[in-house]
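In response to a reviewer's request, we include the raw inputs and outputs for one of the modeled complexes. The three entities were modeled together in a single run.
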Amino acid sequence: MGYPVVQGASYILAHAPDLVQYGSKPRREIPKDPELLEKIQSSLRDFTAAKDYPPHQVFLGNREPEELWEMEQPWYENALQNSPRKGKWGEIFPEEEFYGWLKIADQFDLIHYTKEATEKIRAALSDHSLVEPEDLESLGEGDSEDQIKNFISQGALELYLKGDLIGCIRDGHDEDKNLTADILLENLSVKTTGFLAVKSLLENIDQKEEDIAFVINCGEEGVGDRYQRGAGNLAKAIAEMGGLENSTGADVKAFCNAPMHASVIAASLIDSGVFDHIVLVGGASMAKLGMKMQGHLENDMPIMEDVLAGTAVLFSKDDQVNPQIRLDTIGKHDVKMASSQQAILSALVDKPLQNNGLTIFDVDKYSSELHNPEITVPAGSGNVPHNNYRLIGSFAVKHGLLDVDELDEFEKKYGMPGFSPTQGHIASALPFLGFARERILKGEMTRTLFLGKGSLFLAKMTKTSDGMSFILEENSNSTQ
Amino acid sequence: MFEGKKVMCIGERDGIPGPAIEKIIESAGGKSILSLTQCFV
Amino acid sequence: MEDQGLIKKTVDEHGTEDLMVVLGTPDAESAGIFAETVTIGDPAFSGPLAGVQLGLPVYHVLEPEVKEAADPQVFEDEVSLMEISLDVEAISKEVRRFREKIKQE
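The model returned the following structure tokens for the whole complex.
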């Protein structure tokens, strides 16, 4: 039996334009500028524009990442025509359906929609392949408009669809700052998108729900109450909603680097024989909606951070077919190491490759943090994957294996354009996992290195950063 | 040029983080009075 | 730019005399935004430094002036690879632009 394998990965999006105003940045800026809310609302994309947006079609698996390099930019002005809602890895959900799933995820009667909205949502959801009859039942009948207004007057947070008030979410507790309506909306968004990613994963894979023994959530949100902030365990809540009856789970937290830690932990639990099948899940970061809106508004762009994203991966014991996680080549950023980018990438790329007798060129593709540059560049935060690829190439330059002038070429061959929504951990390397698995299975690639980094300093507990990497490789025992 | 100067080190996650800038300006005789690292993602 | 409040607070505490700013941004565009913020004020006009002209001398850590002043070994260990991978010339040009702007005033 060899190292654990990746059986599949899913990626979903939920278009959430009416929630943009509740992102952390818009929420702080709107009270300062009376005209801002209207500016935001007139700069939002409709569902078709979000669906046809080229990076989203790549995220869902309908296009290859490298195709983006060939497409004219700005991509938001050169949308694909009539692209499908569903891709190889998952689908994009319209806001209406997302609201439905959000209500289904709510076990504490926090979310209330009007009767009219409830019927609309029920109708929108009723034909969906993931919906069970009991899901539609749990939508209930809805409340009267007076009742909704009454909740809102008592402090509930309004929920809108296409600008119309359709309901609200209530506080979970009178005094607990950790259970206010806005925080619970964020947390339920994680649960909902995580659930949709898990269901989409299992829909595409020949593995039964009852076989899954453990779920690891690597999302950034920390759920909890005033006595145990961030205490978790969203993994189990998602497992429950996804019908993984034989599973329990736990959350792994490390900012954007959590997916890397979670992948290594999942593979290790399988390698050691504790569990056979583990699902990794990461739900959305609602707080990051509209985070870089100021840069977008200044450049007369649509607000690009208008989607919530979710991802799930199934790790399994060696099946002698699927690509394996090389547990002997894990790269990690240790406490003693400097937190400069070159120190981090040396620990994640250069050292693990060297220790195993590999060069930079023995990896076919590097999957780094795949943030969509069209979102980050106008806001002055640079092209993250581009900078990462140049830095990885610089190690080859330093070793005398590459000329500085060849860095662009290096990026084209060993890298890819960023195509992921800037939802923190979501962009952290895993968006290429579906493609990597497929290309390795087809014999087009042998090896991909995945790397993530985490901004631990944001929590003010340490000034250090974090980073981890792993290699996904063609199955050494493959009989095919 | 940093001798006797107070320096605010404003780093960035995807560029050079605060602590790295701090080390460099301190090696040049400056004194770091603020070191932060911005993160946009 | 987030953290503008922290920068303003530090300036209020220490005064602007003998105070400098050194940036670590990854490209010319972001270097320009940061340099503008600590010299002539927040270009987005939304943060605590909107309309506040701090007029501080600002450098990027990869600029030749900083490299010359630094211990070569520390520079090598911390940022030598960033020097290869980032567009130092474009970054320096942008930061210099704001440095010269405040000199003229």
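As requested, we also summarize the result in words. Chain A is about 35% helix and 15% strand. The domain at 324-473 of chain A is CATH 3.40.47 (Peroxisomal Thiolase; Chain A, domain 1).
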